[in-house]
Specification:
Helix content is about 35%, strand content about 25%. With about 270 residues, it is an alpha/beta fold. Bound molecules: adenosine-5'-triphosphate and magnesium ion. It is found in: Cell membrane.
Length: about 270
């Protein structure tokens, strides 16, 4: 049997509880992801989505189970898994160009010449339409632009897997739509393997090949996985009239608001 590209097997995670002892956040999390797939993870606040993403990133170590990427165990952060967080984590004293170049130098200093690293930095900033602001510092650009730079920096590392934790969560609806289109376009062109956390059902359906729906914590796990069978390229305006789009959307909404309602909002 061929191994999946990225496999999450029997992952369990506990954190120290307030009153002593341990509280189980995740249990029995199993997921196999094929190369080039775009996976979204959706679930109510606090169920453990970021915890799972951080385990895949190697920023947290799970208590049992494990992660395999191309058959190699993941147990530390590495450039093969680039992370984009909700709150852009750019270095404020560096320009847009320098923020990306720093990552490029770190990953490719032995492999690419200086000129090639310069071109690669510019190329990735062009992918996210940021060529006009190469010399600006983070405080001089908008939130959406910072997020573009964060995505360019992650892509420039040529990671095997792109991990995104609510990458568009802090943005207004129009900027969010623009960035979703940019990410869709890049995924279509480069075929990256992506794992993205979102709270936005429309975003999940628009972008994903599969939507992983998590049950509520404590002891959260994967409840259902929905395959989104919409052909690519997807066009948000055309999808508005597509029954298959509405069916996928309804399936996620029903999971989140009927079958696995957040305890705080359950009647
Ligand atoms: N370092 C930690 N120590 C103790 N508990 C933690 C730690 N990190 C997370 N938790 C707990 O684990 C649970 C899951 O947290 P996590 O951040 O993964 O949730 P989430 O699904 O990403 O939520 P949100 O949608 O609000 O971002 C929460 O109850 C949280 O309080
Ligand atoms: Mg989170």
């Amino acid at each position: 049997m061929t191994q999946p590209y990225l496999s999450i097997s029997q992952v369990a995670m506990q954190f120290p509880a307030r009153g002593g002892g341990l509280s189980t956040v995740l249990t029995d999390v199993d997921l196999a992801i094929e190369k080039g797939q775009f996976i979204s993870i959706i679930g109510h606040s606090g169920c453990g989505k970021s915890t799972l993403l951080n385990i895949v990133a190697g920023l947290l170590t799970c208590m049992s189970g494990g992660i395999l990427l191309e058959n190699k165990e993941v147990n530390a952060p590495g450039p093969d898994r680039a992370v984009v967080f909700q709150n852009h984590s750019l270095l404020p004293w560096l320009t847009v160009y320098e923020n990306v170049r720093l990552a490029v130098d770190k990953v490719f200093s032995g492999q690419k010449s200086k000129t090639e690293r310069d071109e690669w930095t510019r190329h990735n900033l062009a992918l996210v339409n940021m060529t006009h602001a190469l010399d600006k510092r983070p405080h001089e650009i908008s939130g959406g632009m910072k997020q573009r730079v964060g995505i360019a920096r992650a892509l420039a590392m040529e990671p095997k897997v792109l991990l995104m934790d609510e990458p568009f969560g802090a943005l207004d609806a129009l900027t969010r739509a623009q960035l979703q289109d940019t990410v869709m376009d890049i995924h279509q062109r480069l075929g990256n393997t992506v794992m993205m956390i979102t709270h936005d059902v429309d975003e999940a359906v628009l972008l994903s090949d599969r939507i992983v729906m998590m049950t509520n914590g404590p002891s959260a796990t994967i409840g259902e996985v929905l395959t989104v069978d919409l052909p690519r390229r997807r066009d948000r305006l055309k999808l508005a009239d597509d029954p298959a789009y509405h069916k996928s959307r309804a399936a996620v909404l029903s999971f989140l608001y009927e079958r696995h309602r957040h305890p705080a909002t359950a009647a």
